[in-house]
Please model this.
Amino acid sequence: IASPHRGEEAVSPNGSDISGLELRLPLWSVVPSALVDQLSLPLTGQDSILEPLCFPERPACSCSAVGVQSGGAELLVCLFCSESVPTQQKDALLRHLLLEHKLVIADVKLIADLAKYLLYWKGRFMEQSLTDFCSVIKTNSTGPVEKQEEYFLLCDVLPEDRLFREKLQQKRLEEVLEQQQREREDSSFHRLCMFCSEEFTGNRSSMLNHMAREHSFSIGLPDNIVYCDQFLDTLQDKLDNLQCLYCEKTFRDKTTLKDHMRKKAHRRINANNHEYDRFYVINYLELGKTWEEVQSEDDRELVEDEDDDWSDWRAHPLSAVCLFCEHQSETMEQIYTHMKESHGFDLHRLKTELNLKFYQQVKLVNFIRRQIHQSRCYGCQQAFDCRADVLRHLEAEGHMMALPEASAWDQPQYYFPTYENDALLCTLSDSEEDETDTTEHSEDVPVIAEDISNLRDIRQSSVLDQLLRSRASCS
Model:
């Protein structure tokens, strides 16, 4: 986990010292879901953003991996009070922990059994102080004491937390493998095909292979699937509701739906729908990895003797979104030029004039994103009804480059991205001061060119030659 710079308000729990680390990655890149599940870290009052924000034009980052959790009837208990909710209302409890107790649990989606996880830490918090386990992030650290708030981060940087998460994951994997083995050996399977109503009895593989062979509909090898009956029930419910399994559009009748799926070759499931993740064993194998990541590893060439040819490899273009509008560009120079020419906002100039370091740029971008999202002028704090009104005000009043005092935006809470898939944050760099240090230093040292026009004279007058002559005369 990357901490703020030394001197910032970040306190590490015993056994997980993070305050001394100064990584070149921002905080969210190592704890991607620490606040994605519950926040962009809220400020006090109406400045709170509790839902995870994403730019609609792009999918969420793959680093926010979706874990697999069961939807049992267990209650989720609060770690500090008597509050409890059903498993299906997980978000309500997480919001309660955040607002009432200032606690954030990192990577909630990767916890195999959240109910047992909460019970475990409820007991541990009764035995020891919260700060023995959690990192502390203080908001408004440069402001008055009465306006400062402390938030607590519980994450797997703490060895005890990591070990317990792995224990839950291992137990879940054992349960899943046992369930899969029972389904493999089960001979009491009985179901109708979803497409032709042909009846199948015996083992589930007969029906799955039939759908793949006769209807070109494959959900994978039978041995890779677990909770097969629930999986087929889920697919059947979608078809009964006249919904395409791939594009998930709804149609007026079954005939239209079947023609659509046949003509569009949509007789397959939507791989981006994580509702299906818990039906594939691959999602239970490694803590913190989704089936896409594991599958990608399986596809790699592992032969060490062969030279890989990367000549035809092309990187996926990084698309960044403007701070003020929905314009996107695939190169950073284009997005910086767009903001300068279209909105009069020069990020390069601000970085140079204010000598902004890397983390200061991160906080400034997140601050501006938050203000624009909440339809507020970041220069004078005037609130408006919509983003368009804010932009008109910024341009009319000349507030585009009018930043408030650094104390307003140079705060630890702005380490966390307002938009979790903000590619602009990945392109920031340190101030040009670091780049010019070497040049300025070299300019202070005179460089004297050696006159080598007469090499013979140089050899005769060299110190080494004199030492050799002296030694020869002594001997």
